[in-house]
């Protein structure tokens, strides 16, 4: 089958210097991928052009999709990107790579939150959270778990501390008594 029978062909004249050249523009792929690929031919050279996003969608190619603005749909492509980011050959400052941060965020968004958080220590996970955010969703027992009895007393509101007898306060360590007296004034 000749090219003119397989795809639409557009011919146009391009003037280069004083010489006129005829360039043939053709899209030589199956109908579902035609808009992604084209070829310019004229004289002794040929130029093949393709639109990355359109080609990635038409051919359902995740690795190609990562080169454009699309999102990876398979674990294989996400693993490949993670390997490239972690490799020594990729030793370039991340801030110098335009669009990489957005790609990484898209990649992270495809993973379950538990998987993303497992890469961090508990201290890293909690960084940036207010005390209220850290305690949200915990029962009172869970909030106090791991505290010594004196630390639990210090966690009581001032109104409750006022109600404690002097006899009970005398059973506490000097540091705890001093902290309570500083808060309630007795």
**Chain-averaged pLDDT:** 76
Helix-strand topology string: HEEEEHHHHHHHHHHHH
Q: Can you count the beta strands?
A: 4
Determine the fraction of residues in helical runs and give it as a percent range.
Answer: 40-55%
Class per helix and strand makeup: alpha+beta
Beta-strand fraction estimate:
15-25%
Strand order of the largest sheet: 1-2-3-4
CA radius of gyration is 34 Å
Count of DSSP helices? 13
Sheet bearing the most strands, described?
Answer: 4 strands, antiparallel
Q: Report low-confidence residues grouped into runs of 5 or more.
A: 1-29
Name the overall outline.
rod-shaped
Describe this structure in words.
It is built from 13 helices and four strands. 47% of the residues lie in helices and 15% in strands. The longest helix has 12 residues, at 75-86. It has a four-stranded antiparallel β-sheet. The protein has helices at 3-6, 52-59, 62-67, 75-86, 100-109, 113-117, 122-126, 131-135, 140-144, 149-155, 158-163, 166-169, 174-184; strands at residues 9-16, 19-26, 37-42, 45-50. By secondary structure, the chain is of the alpha+beta class. The radius of gyration is 34 Å and the shape is rod-shaped.
């Amino acid at each position: 089958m000749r090219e003119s029978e397989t795809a639409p062909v557009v011919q146009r004249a391009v003037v280069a210097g004083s010489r006129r050249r005829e360039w043939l523009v053709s899209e030589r792929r199956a109908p579902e991928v035609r808009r992604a690929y084209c070829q310019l031919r004229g004289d002794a050279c040929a130029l093949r052009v393709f639109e990355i996003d359109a080609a990635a969608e038409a051919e359902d190619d995740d690795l190609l999709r990562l080169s454009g603005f699309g999102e990876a749909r398979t674990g294989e492509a996400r693993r490949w990107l993670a390997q490239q980011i972690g490799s020594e050959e990729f030793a370039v400052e991340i801030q110098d790579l335009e669009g990489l941060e957005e790609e990484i965020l898209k990649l992270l968004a495809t993973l379950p939150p538990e998987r993303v958080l497992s890469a961090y220590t508990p201290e890293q996970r909690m960084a940036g959270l207010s005390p209220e955010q850290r305690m949200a969703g915990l029962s009172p027992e869970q909030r106090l778990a791991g505290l010594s009895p004196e630390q639990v007393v210090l966690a009581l509101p001032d109104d409750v501390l006022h109600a404690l007898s002097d006899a009970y306060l005398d059973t506490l360590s000097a540091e705890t008594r001093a902290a309570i007296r500083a808060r309630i004034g007795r």
